[in-house]
Amino acid sequence: MTADTTQPHIGQSAATTHEGILAWVDEVAELTQPDRVHWCTGSDEEWTELTDALVASGTFTRLNADKKPNSFHAASDPTDVARVEDRTFICSVDEKDCGPTNNWMDPQEMKAIMTDLYRGCMRGRTMYVVPFVMGHLEADSPMFGVEITDSAYVVASMRVMARMGSNVLRRMEEVGATFVPALHSVGMPLVDGRADVSWPCNDTKYIVQFPEERMIWSFGSGYGGNALLGKKCYALRIASVMARDEGWLAEHMLILKLTSPEGVRKYIAAAFPSACGKTNLAMLAPTIPGWKVETLGDDIAWMRIGDDGRLYAVNPEFGFFGVAPGTNELTNPNAMRTIDIGNSVFTNVALTDDGDVWWEGLENTPAHATSWKGEDWTPDSDELSSHPNSRYCTPIKQCPILAPEYDDPRGVPIDAILFGGRRKTTVPLVTEARDWTHGTFMGATLSSETTAAAVGQVGVVRRDPMAMLPFIGYNAGDYFNHWITVGKDNDAAKLPKIFYVNWFRRDEDGGFLWPGFGENSRVLKWVVERMEGQAEAVETPIGYVPTPGSLDTDGLDMTEEELAQALAVDVEEWKAEIPQITEWFEKFGENLPAVLWTELDGLKARLGA
Ligand code: SAT
Ligand code: MN
Q1: Domains in the chain with CATH codes
Q2: Which residues form the Phosphoenolpyruvate carboxykinase GTP-utilising N-terminal domain (predicted)?
Q3: pLDDT of residue 14
Q4: Measured CA distances, 190 to 13, 29, 123, 512 (Å)
Q5: Atom of ligand 1 nearest to the CA of 299
Q6: Nearest C-alpha to atom 2 of ligand 1 is from which residue?
Q7: Nearest-CA residue for atom 4 of ligand 1
Q8: According to the model, what pLDDT value does residue 548 have?
Q9: Mutate to test the pocket of ligand 1, among 83, 272, 279, 320 (most ligand atoms within 8 A of CB)
Q10: Is 272 near ligand 1, meaning CB less than 6 Å away?
Q11: CA 499 – ligand 1 centroid, Å
Q12: Buried-state track 219-249, b at ≥16 Cβ within 10 A, e below 16
């Protein structure tokens, strides 16, 4: 965009001395035929130019600076609103390495198909080169990537979500870094006088990981998880493969720091499927006096065993990509403070007449707004103002409760891991695993009702192991085995304790049994007290569950009966899970670690099933 970084045509002035990057950029430009190549610097000037251009092209609407400074509204094509799991592929060389939970195609076949799609796909557009690092640039071995994209919306979003730009590129040059090449196109060349649209995309979509080559190819979608390739594609799918090979863990987990009134400090990582409240838990405002939560991450944790034998977690991201609907002063006041500062992009929410954003669940319902589909909206409208998977994209540094350790490249030692799903029945509020292997069994059998974060039916119960179902970059049976191995190879006493939570259990009338949100601090308190050997629990067939008196319910408007229901382990309900778990495990054949069958046998025996 600026004269010094824009090349009128390809491969003429080298914007980098990194030969690998240069060669790849030239190769992609040759194939995709963009009008211009822009090497992204990540500077404020570049942000201004990009966002001005996005406003001019109609992709962005600038929000009222008195409400949300330096912030923008975008509305996607109505067909491009979520991750597309049926178009997402793990193209391992051997189909067995993809496993039964992913889509597979032979890598050569996929490359042939996509090369045809990519041919000339950037005509009339700018090709942006985004050097980025997931995690810290000062990490022992920084995890570099380069995303090539023809979407300015993606560049703006990547600048919020990842550390990117010139300083990253300079470091890559200095060390001759290897990097994950991540190619993205919206798949809408501007040829034959075709006018651009505010949200270019293509009905044909492919989100493809090549695990052996550590490479990502994405085509046809501009939506976050499909297009911001540092996030799910790199930091989970590709990184999970690296983690398997190198003995660490890449997980779909938030990271938070919890401090008790006595100053006891614990770090907790928690895995929940998309759109199940991870961001809200990460920024929790405790309702119980004296307890404090600080945030380190809301979506992804990379965890490695440190020299002291403990499991250290870093958040590889630089921003939050949170679900907007339902976010408000009550459910997540800290997210509200984060976005108030500005510098954010809001996608598929409503635009108010005074130039602010609004969504279902937010306070101050406007009398009139423009819906995410660009239509007039009033509180009487039959349609939602915002798509259920609409998002805010905002810098993590703006979070008022960001833990200072966030900036430590070594990460923080994790004390407890929570697995959680969205289940109306069966799963109690909180259960403590007996040990790491039992915790791995809990994670491997985690189940949840589907949400709007992925295209498809909402509310169907499916197994979502470790909340990683759409993100495991290899055979999920091998992934379970990797978890078991981490437990075996390390000092069990130093590994985090594992818990299973369910905020979403309902009573017979369909009402939530547990108030959730800030009240979840009561469950975190119990978790801490268990680790400190203070809180009581009953041993049940599925693990340790709080005795009614051990959970702090002071000041909570909840009957004893309701609490008992929230904590109940109903043997009949659990017996009904057994055939489902059996069927789930059978999918993995000999790749399923035998100890997980042993765990299931133990559960059956304890249930008398
Ligand atoms: O849709 S994203 O992948 O960007 C977010 C999520 O589903 O967790
Ligand atoms: Mn997520």
Answers
A1: 6-59+82-246 (3.40.449.10), 249-319+404-607 (3.90.228.20), 320-398 (2.170.8.10)
A2: 24-244
A3: 64
A4: 25, 15, 6, 50
A5: 8
A6: 225
A7: 225
A8: 85
A9: 83
A10: no
A11: 23
A12: bbbbbbbbbbbbbbbbbbbbbbbbbbeeebb
Q: For residue range 32-83, list pLDDT tens digits in order.
A: 999 999 999 999 999 999 999 999 999 999 999 999 999 999 999 999 999 9
Confidence of residue 7 (pLDDT cuts 50, 70, 90): very low
Any ligand 1 atom below 6 A from CB of 453: yes
Mean pLDDT of the chain: 96
Q: Is the pLDDT of residue 8 over 80?
A: no
ipTM value for the complex: 0.97
Place of tokens 């920024």: 283
pLDDT band at 135 (very low <50, low <70, confident <90, very high): very high
In short, whether 83's Cβ falls inside 6 Å of ligand 1 is yes
DSSP 70: T
For CA atoms 452, 454, 459, 465, the dihedral sign is negative
Does position 6 have pLDDT exceeding 50, yes or no?
Answer: no
What would the pLDDT profile of 153-173 be if each residue is shown by its tens digit? 999 999 999 999 999 999 999
Q: Where are the alpha helices (DSSP H) in 328-435?
A: 333-340
**Whole-number percent of the chain with pLDDT over 70:** 98
Half-sphere exposure at residue 475, Cβ-oriented, CA atoms within 13 angstroms: 20
Helix ranges (H only) for 176-277 are 224-227, 239-246
Please report, to the nearest 10 degrees, the dihedral formed by the alpha carbons of residues 130, 131, 132, 137 taken in order: -150
Is residue 186 a contact partner of residue 221, using CB atoms and an 8 Å limit? yes
Residue bearing tokens 């899970």: 577
Ligand 1 near 232 CB (within 6 A): yes
Active site members: 276
**Burial environment of residue 180 by CB neighbours within 10 A (0 to 12, 13 to 18, 19 or more):** buried
Q: Is 274 in the pocket of ligand 1 (CB under 6 A)?
A: yes
Distance 82 CA to ligand 1 centre (A): 8
Q: How far apart are CA 469 and CA 446, in angstroms?
A: 10
Task: Answer yes or no: are the C-beta atoms of 316 and 143 closer than 8 Å.
Answer: yes
Nearest CA to ligand 1 atom 8: 274
